[in-house]
Amino acid sequence: MLAQTTMTSKGQTTIPKEIRDRLGLQPQDKLNFSLLSDGTVIMRAKKGSIKSVYGMLHQADRLVISIEEMQRP
């Protein structure tokens, strides 16, 4: 796939929608850029870490139980 974009005077650019969709990119996603010796730029969507989902399922009124308690019949 080939896509073209224009860089603004502030160094900003928009990733074309087709590429955003194919990579599953969302606002606030992090992107890593690598510059190869021949001038090729590789852009990769940074994979989320467990830290990025920490607390996502937290419910203040939910009872905290151990794994052993969960495994009891």
Automatic annotation (TrEMBL):
The molecular function GO annotations come to: DNA binding; DNA-binding transcription factor activity; toxin sequestering activity
Q: Which Gene3D superfamilies match?
A: 2.10.260.10
Q: Which Pfam families match?
A: PrlF_antitoxin
Give the SpoVT-AbrB domain ranges.
2-48
Question: GO biological process annotations for this chain's record?
Answer: regulation of cell growth
Please give the superkingdom of this protein's source.
Bacteria
- Extract the InterPro entries matched here: PrlF_antitoxin, SpoVT-AbrB_dom, SpoVT-AbrB_sf
Q: Which keywords belong to this entry?
A: DNA-binding
What name does the UniProt record give this protein?
Transcriptional regulator, AbrB family
The species this protein belongs to is Crenothrix polyspora
**Upper classification of the organism:** Bacteria, Pseudomonadati, Pseudomonadota, Gammaproteobacteria, Methylococcales
